[in-house]
Design brief:
This is Ubiquitin-like domain-containing protein. Pfam families: ubiquitin. The strands form two sheets. Strands 4-3-7-5-6 form a five-stranded mixed beta sheet. It has a two-stranded antiparallel ribbon with strand order 1-2. It has a domain of 78 residues: Ubiquitin-like (UB roll). Helices cover 36% and strands 21% of the residues. The radius of gyration is 31 Å and the shape is elongated. A hairpin with a 2-residue loop joins strand 5 and strand 6.
């Protein structure tokens, strides 16, 4: 069973205060009821929309210069690299930057974030990469094996020439 409070109790303690319908001119302008130009100008603003890479239609954000750069740490087994990159970049673009730092071609790189390997066309901000996050860089095992086989073939060919 539900009990209702009386109106008198609510009014006495400030809940549901009674006001007259007219109010002052200043109150009406604050509520947007008066003949103010502010009311007209706020209605002329158009909302701009954008289509996000995931296919979602959202209200366009304010353009700001320099605020969309994030600092991330890319770790390998040997060392790590701290770098700044735009949050709207893809993992493929990150691989291009890392190829300059590590010497590994983008095809030879595998990037992992939150335990999952990320594709080249995935966007950093869509996956959740933020400021000071860590991305793991691994060398692709197929290329690693090929490099080891090439080294063994070179050393074997050198041995046959010497003998």
């Amino acid at each position: 069973m539900m009990k209702f409070k009386s109106k008198r109790f609510g009014i006495r303690f400030g809940f549901g205060k009674r006001t007259n319908n007219k109010g002052t001119q200043q109150d009406q302008q604050q509520k947007g009821l008066g003949n103010s130009n502010n009311n007209i100008s706020c209605c002329n603003n158009e909302i701009k929309w954008e289509l996000r890479p995931g296919g979602m239609l959202v209200q366009k954000r304010q353009e700001s210069i320099g605020d969309d750069l994030i600092s991330i740490r890319v770790s390998t087994f040997a060392n790590f690299h701290d770098l700044s990159i735009e949050a709207t970049s893809t993992f493929g673009e990150l691989k291009m930057v890392l190829s300059l730092l590590t010497g590994l071609e983008p095809k030879q790189q595998r990037l992992l974030f939150k335990g999952k390997e990320r594709e080249d066309d995935e966007y950093l901000h869509m996956v959740g990469v933020g400021e000071k996050d860590k991305v793991l860089l691994l060398e692709d095992p197929a290329f690693k094996e090929k490099k080891l086989l090439d080294r063994n073939n070179i050393s074997a060919s050198c041995l046959t020439i010497i003998v």
